[in-house]
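#struct-pred

JT: dropping the chains for the assembly here, can someone run the whole complex?
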Amino acid sequence: MSKKIFIIVGDNLGLSRKQIDYDALEIVKFPVFVGETEYRQSEEYNANWLISKYENEKVVAKSSTLIHNEIADVIERNRANYDLFIHVVMSSGLSAASFQAAENVRKQYEKIVPVINVDSRQAVNGVGSVLLGIIDLIKTNPDLSVDELEAACQQIVENTFSWFVLPDLNYLYKGGRIGKAQSLMGSVLHIIPLLGLMGDEKEGIVLAQGKARTFRQINDMIINQIKSKMQEKSVTTIKRAITLQGYGDKNKEVIAECMEKLKSLPCNEIIHGEGGLVDAVYCGPGAYGVSILL
Amino acid sequence: MNTNNADLDLLKETRMGFDQETINEIIDNIYHYLCKHKEYLNGLNVFPVPDGDTGLNMVLTLQGAIGQMKKNKKNYTHSGEYLEDFAEQMLLNSRGCSGVILSLFAQGFTQITANNDFSKENIYRAIENGYLNAYKGTENPREGTMLTLMRAFKEKYAELMHMHDNPLMIMQETIPYLKKVLDQTPDMLPVLKQAGVVDSGGAGFVIMLEGINKELSFYIDSGIPIQKLLKTGRSIQKLLKKRISEFHKNQSASSVLNFDISKIHNRRLAEVFQNAKILLGNLHLNHNGNGKTINREKIIEDLREIDNSWNPEIKEKFCTEFILETDQIKNKDDLKSKIANYGDSLIIVNTNNKYKVHIHTNKPNDLFEDMSCYGTLLFTKVDDMKKQHHNFISEDVVDYDRDKSIFCIVSGKGFADILKNLGADDILCYGKNKPSVNQLVKKLNELKAKNIMAAADDSDILMALKYAASLCKSNIYIVESDNPISLINILMSISKDYDIHTTFDTAMNNLENIRYCGIAQSSREVLAEDGSTVHKGDFFAVYEKKIVLANPSKEKLLIDVIEKIAANNSLVTFYKGAKVGNDEQLINQLEEKFPQLEFEKYYGGQFNYLYYITFE
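RK: done, full complex below.
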């Protein structure tokens, strides 16, 4: 008999609920602080709201980790009806505390219900890519054992790759997520950095993938790096690409150009992701990117 | 001069006197003769930028060598020995292509005259060796350059040899012919024809010969060599292998007796030469070999060992190490059977499924490729043993502080800041005068990096850099860049995480990512690519190494450049030169005229061009 699986994910996944075709799923919202005030994603407090505050009020925003009790509460409410919980967590390399919170919940329910915490090695739409990959897996292989599922989830993580163009790295820096991309900061020459979260890199931290002087160069760089990754992994078609865009009006044309170039790649599905409030904290105005599952 | 047993015969001449002051004065006068022609040579640059520097580079090369020789406290026994050292100092102080090529000629020449033989035949061999040394040391040697003049000098000298015994007279007669050859250089090199000039390096070479001829008409020196100690050592070995009775008849043996041991700076060689001297002295004094007990075989063996240690046969060039993580290899023996054919000195250490391997091989990359089929290479390291040997015998120990350095050599302070900011680890900002080989060696050694990727903003530095690299302790990877924009390209394309090989490959593959042009003001009349005349004082644009546009008005030229070159681009960046004043208004005008383009402006600080302009 197939297992009944419930999925938990934080709201830093670059997708809205309606873009995820899986019922047994709950999105737990990250707390976002602007000044001393805490906000959660809502119709009113969304990415555009924060970007507007960034542009007009020069505010500083931060996010906090998922709260233990909120994750545990999801399991508590659903455990009677499900055999297994899978929590897709943002990269532990970016937020060790978030993964620790997930692990603490797993231990709490160790003898009650199995919980698989998947360290996605991703953020934003990269988490979304891993999540949708796992949903595909569950739907196509409903009879996998917990161990088999865990191993298959890990395969998905290792085949997920994301590229981000953040015109202002200060948002990432202030949020403590800059990782090895710090070397790209503070250039005399105006440069546009290309960042990446590569699923086959164990550290799961933001990596500098390149730098350019124009967005056209950056867009070409993204496409070329995707092609190289496909070649490296001997993949002819991308299973799914999820784009990241829409943080304000800045860079609309170059984002459109990037999306157009993306269409030239062999890809089964392209989803135009919807960034949430917590994603906007780190991305800042004009950010864009793409995550792929090979 | 007797060429049989030459090394030992030459030692005999150490007893003869040598006037160091006189030769210093001759060289000083030749240097001043070249100085007088410096501006003429500078003016012969292909691009008529005001700081054309062939003359300056040649002058500074001589000046540097003269300065070093004055500081040198060494006692020379004859002019052949002195000139050989002088040529080495020229090479170490050489600047620009012209300085390096001239120095290479001098080096090759003085290697032959180190035996102090200034006969016409030996001078011919010296000229021939000078030419070959310069030719072999030049990347992409071309006709119409200084090399053509050197070859012509060799050929004409050979042709005239039967007419005179005095080599100076032969040399004197080659000069009018060389001037004719110089006049033909524009026909050999189209770029000279277009610029309407003869080759500046070639002209410098002829001027040098004129200076030498002028000075040396009064002098012919004779003397002796001691530099070739190892060669002499080999001759001593041969001598000692002969029967004792032959020693008495051999004049060469008595030459060794007069050898000044204090001139040998290598302690071991001095000790062995001293022993040889004692041994031969005993044999001569006693005529029976019963003097102080010195083992003849021991001297021969010591000399052989010393010779071998300085000239070892390194069959497998690269000391290679790697760690292989694999489940496909059963044990050390299994791995050994797979890689033993790659080289020698194989050591394998094994823990679980990890193998640490040390091997000397000529094919490290093939080995890595082969090994990666069996598992994951967790670590790789390749050291050039010939380079290590060079470092070892130089007795100059360098402790490396880091594995890798990206080293940029630039003229402009602004570019230095930009490159540093983009991730260059070390910068040499040389300002207006290009760095000498000595300065480059010093700087490269100061970096204390095991591997250095070096890139300069001017092709004229390349030869000096290559020579410096050969004298430097580290493994140097030279990127053949020739402008500061290439250096920006390099730093934009590489990552700090790359190993030195990936860094170098990436740099070489990305040198020309950004299109650019240089804007300068003409210091003389010249032809543009399309055949039109660029007048003195006009502004002109150099694009892909050709003068493509010119205009008396800088503003109009810049508009023209942007209209013609910036099509399909979105970003135009100005890197302002050291000599440009306030140009805010000019850039504003361009921004108004080309609203579809984005303009950025930075201080480059370069001396050759008023602006470098990039189009992206």
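JT: nice. The radius of gyration of chain A is 18 Å. Residues 173 and 182 of chain A are 8 Å apart (CA to CA).
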